[in-house]
Specification:
heterodimer; A: alpha+beta; Dna Ligase, domain 1; D-amino Acid Aminotransferase, Chain A, domain 1; 8-stranded antiparallel β-sheet; 22 strands; globular; B: alpha+beta; OB fold (Dihydrolipoamide Acetyltransferase, E2P); 4-stranded antiparallel β-sheet; 29% strand
Amino acid sequence: MFKKVLIANRGEIALRVIRTCKEMGIKTVAVYSTADKDSLHVRFADEAVCIGPPSSAESYLSITKIMAAVEITNADAIHPGYGFLSENADFAEVCEEYGIKFIGPTASMIKRMGDKITAKETMVAAKVPVVPGSDGQVKTVKEGLKIAQKIGYPVILKATAGGGGKGMRIVKNEEEFEEQLDKAQMEAAASFGNDAMYLEKFVEEPRHVEIQIIGDQFGKVIHLSERDCSIQRRHQKLVEEAPSPFLDQKLREKMGRAAIKAGKAIKYEGVGTVEFLVDKHKKFYFMEMNTRIQVEHPVTEEVIHIDLIKEQIKVAAGEKLSGKSYYPTMHAIECRINAEDPYHNFRPNPGHIHSFHSPKGHGVRVDTHVYAGYSVPPYYDSMIAKLICKAETREECIKKMQRALDEFIVEGIKTTIPFHKQLMKDEKFLSGDVTTKFLEDFDLKPQ
Amino acid sequence: MMDYKQIQDLIKLVSKSELSEIRLKDGDFELTIRNKNYVKGSNAIASSVIAAPAVMPQVASAPVPAPASVSAPAAKADIEIAKKDEAKTDANLVEVRSPIVGTFYRSPSPDKPAFVQVGDSISIGSVVCIVEAMKLFNEIESEVSGKIVKVLVEEASPVEYDQVLFLVDPAG
């Protein structure tokens, strides 16, 4: 087992990892930018190294600075968290070269799943259902039109290097194909420096359902069932829940098996998430795979009684999985609380928090790095807390979430708590009838 | 001789009161406590000690073994006890901070002399030390000119970003 883990991250996930390491008897090293010197993760770790100025590029994204911190503290493993360098194949490779264990998959696994076209090809070869579309890059308009004709409109053009909803355009019919292709390519070139596009059938009113998997170093892959993340705003998740109100046990087992096939196809090591789109006919299609721990991992932890960070560290240290897959025994919902103003288009609202009282009590979990007196810096993402509730049924879980949101006091900055309060009373949400289109029709009422 | 707790109590007293200074002398033991109201070189000091009898009973309650010196304000208060005056003098010095994370070395190699010693004059761009990370030896250049007053890091010890390495007197 590792003696000392350096956490190459910040905020709530750094705290999360530090806590589990402490429970496992592993020493921890926090790294931080000067903007984070009062951050909790710095205080909770056994050692802390300041690695740079506020800008992410010169601190949390700097491979050389993080490796230098590993060197002077003699850490033997790195936990990359999520975001930042967690899916950076170069970083994983540098760790491999230096003999430091990167707690996650290998560089080549990251590369294979990071390129969306390669990932899709791998899935097709593994007989995992994928959204019908082009086999690789669409190089000409003529080629694109032919494929679109075959798979049927509407179709969606996507950038192969894309993410965060950029470089995507829906094409409703043949007439507008060329125009949408041009627009998508321009945006892709501007956002990612790469305008290579591929084409897919546009799945209408899909649900975003992802399967959590874990793979060990010996070829075993297991699944821990699904999380439904259909409530998204501009492709950013706001609420996640497990189990999905749409899945029945048969579909769950089918998707679980497909996710395991996906993991085995690349001999996956570590925790990972296979994301699927599910249409109203209960057909599911592979969308992408995230080769890291995810923000919403607590949802799975609460319904399956497991510490995913612990499992992640164990497989990285060479322990074997039993081979058993897991199914939820409870219902859990997570609300992401961001320092954003929901009444002004969710614009970021960093600043000084002078009062902070998080909800507590039976079935309530809050993962946060924030406290009264803390200043949310403007340099990083806006999430300040995750509120997770669990109960026996979905209905009770929602009631608990309503109660917990009512207790959640954050003063000094605006947060998305009012948005979640309204959402938890919304009829459509209560009925479980939620697709990725849900928020488009959601009207935030004044308080 | 006063014990530590008594001195602490006196300090609390001075900081809360309108007094700007208290001086105590008891044989070889001398103690001066000043707060932010203190104005250097002000002759009002001795008289304000006399003129603030309200303080006396409070002082007496923090038992002072030689109450005679306090209640006899004419006693000339002399010099303060040796206090660390570093904070005061350091205010004029400029810090040279590490721009990277790594291990600090004072010389280009173990057999060569240090880049700088205390007392040396440096100019902007002078190499003052090496910070090594991942087998890369980075020469750290000073962004100020002046005289090296203090070296704050030990040879071959780890440094983090922004850690203070040297104190430089820009007027030196």
